[in-house]
Structures are given as C-alpha cells and as structure tokens.
Automatic annotation (TrEMBL):
Gene3D superfamilies reported for this sequence: Carbon-nitrogen hydrolase
UniProt-listed Pfam families: CN_hydrolase
Protein name: Carbon-nitrogen family hydrolase
Domain of life of the source: Bacteria
Family: Belongs to the carbon-nitrogen hydrolase superfamily. NIT1/NIT2 family.
InterPro entries documented for this protein: C-N_Hydrolase, C-N_Hydrolase_sf, UPF0012_CS
Any one GO molecular function term: hydrolase activity
UniProt-listed SUPFAM superfamilies: Carbon-nitrogen hydrolase
Keywords per UniProt: Hydrolase
Length: 265
C-alpha cells in the first residue's frame, strides 16, 4: 500500500480558491498512490480564527467539490484534511473529509477535542461526538480518523482500535513551538495502538503562528518510517498492512488490557 502525505504550506497571501486549485493538482500528481492525506484546515489555516466564519462551507462546498474531482481523477482514496464546516443551523465544526477513488464522500469526522482552552477553536466550533472508522475498499484496511489536538487523548485512539482501526490518520495544523510533542505523541499512539500512524501537518504560518511541519509516518512498533522537514513537502511511503496483524499477534499486548476497574475511594 502506497501513501502520500502532502504537507501544504498555508500562505496568507494565497487566496483560498487558488490554494484549492493548487492542492487539487498536487493530489492528481499522486495518481500512483493508494491513499493521499492532506493537513487540517488547509483552506483557511488552523490558527486563523478570525477567518473561520468567512471561510465556513457546507459539506458540498467548494473544497469538497475540488477534492472529490481530484480524488476521482487520480483514482485514490483521499483524506482531504479538514474544513470549517457550517451546518444547516449555522453551527461550525472542524470536519475531516474522506473521499473514495470514485470521488464519493465516504466518511466525515467532526473533531472531538477542540484546541484553545475556551478561546479560538474551542470557543468558535462545536465538539464532534462520534468515533469514526472507515474501511478502504480494495486496500483491505480500516482507518481511524482523528485531528490534531485529538492526538493528546489516548482514550480516543483506544476506541478507534476497538472499532477495528489498523491505520490512524491524523491531519493537523500543529505549532512549531510544540513540535517535540507532535513527534512524541505520534509514536506513542502507534506503539500503544499497534497501528500505523499517518500524521500530516502544515508548513508556513497561520495568523502569525509558525507551523511545525514534520509530517510523520510511524509503524506499529513505533519506528519512524518517514518524516518531512519544516517546509512544503510530500512524503511518499510504501506500507505493509500485514505488519499490523503481525505485530498484534507477535506481541499481543492489546489482549492484556484490564478495563472497568473502579476508581479509588
């Protein structure tokens, strides 16, 4: 299975429509891949809070249309990162879009853990409330969906594993100031889940916040398969889906989980 993680530079002087076209062309250029992954909120910038309302769009909006076309043209599974979704009632969500190779919207995931500590995203967007996995027909694997700040919450990833996830796909707009946490947490989630982690970040600067870049692919043993630098870059990696089942069979730690213990009094 070949995966391409496209680490996009979000430039404040690039109009959203121009970026959508540029990113669609990048997706089409990877027609030899099985799965293409884009970062979080790349149409607007993960820290461009003041622009969220202006750039909010429905699930059939301009980003979805461009990404559906690109996925179909390339014949790839496309995790198109996330958009600021505006629901029918006006509520905003940070929503990931997963497209099938025929361009069909296969799954959506609304980010559960919103960053900001009662400011920014946490104040402007509603919380998702659904654990989302998706079988990738033709590849024989199931992916679990999470976004950026979710990476700090292992409980969510345990639930994804319990729901059958073998690959954990994490688009992000992670700040450079905490890049060490990004790499550490991606490896931790891979080791404890005995799953591949495909973590795709952004480059550039969002509303004055320098982005970490350094998209990374980690295997079920916690080994880094590939890692990007700080700038715009694509990681193209060949992965063995059988390694997940092999790891879980050779080192069956997941079966030793003890659940439902009472809290101390």
């Amino acid at each position: 299975m070949r995966a391409a993680l496209v680490q996009i530079e979000v430039r404040p002087d690039e109009p959203a429509d121009a970026r959508r076209k540029r990113v669609a062309d990048l997706v089409r250029a990877h027609d030899g891949a099985d799965l293409v992954v884009l970062p979080e909120l790349w149409p607007v910038g993960a820290f461009a809070f003041d622009a969220f309302a202006e750039h909010a769009e429905p699930l059939d909006g301009p980003t979805a249309a461009a990404m559906s076309s690109a996925a179909s043209d390339a014949g790839v599974w496309l995790h198109a990162g996330s958009v600021v979704e505006r629901g029918p009632d006006g509520t905003l969500h940070n929503t990931s879009l997963l497209f099938a190779p025929d361009g069909r919207l296969h799954r959506t995931y609304r980010k559960i853990h919103r960053f900001g500590f009662d400011k920014g995203e946490a104040a402007l967007m509603a919380r998702g409330d659904e654990i989302v996995t998706a079988p990738l027909d033709g590849l024989g694997v199931t992916v679990g969906l999470a976004t950026c700040y979710d990476l700090r919450f292992p409980e969510q990833f345990r639930l994804l594993v319990d729901a059958g996830a073998e690959f954990l796909v994490v688009p992000a707009g992670w700040p450079a100031a905490r890049r060490a946490h990004w790499s550490l947490l991606a490896r931790a989630r891979a080791v404890e889940s005995q799953a591949y982690v495909l973590a795709c970040g952004t480059a550039g600067t969002h509303a004055g916040i320098e982005q970490a870049g350094h998209s990374v692919v980690v295997d079920p043993w916690g080994e880094v398969v590939a890692e990007a630098g700080p700038g715009e870059e694509t990681l193209l990696v060949d992965l063995d889906p059988g390694l997940v089942a092999g790891t879980r069979a050779d080192f069956p730690a997941l079966r030793d989980r003890v659940l439902g213990l009472p809290l101390p009094r």
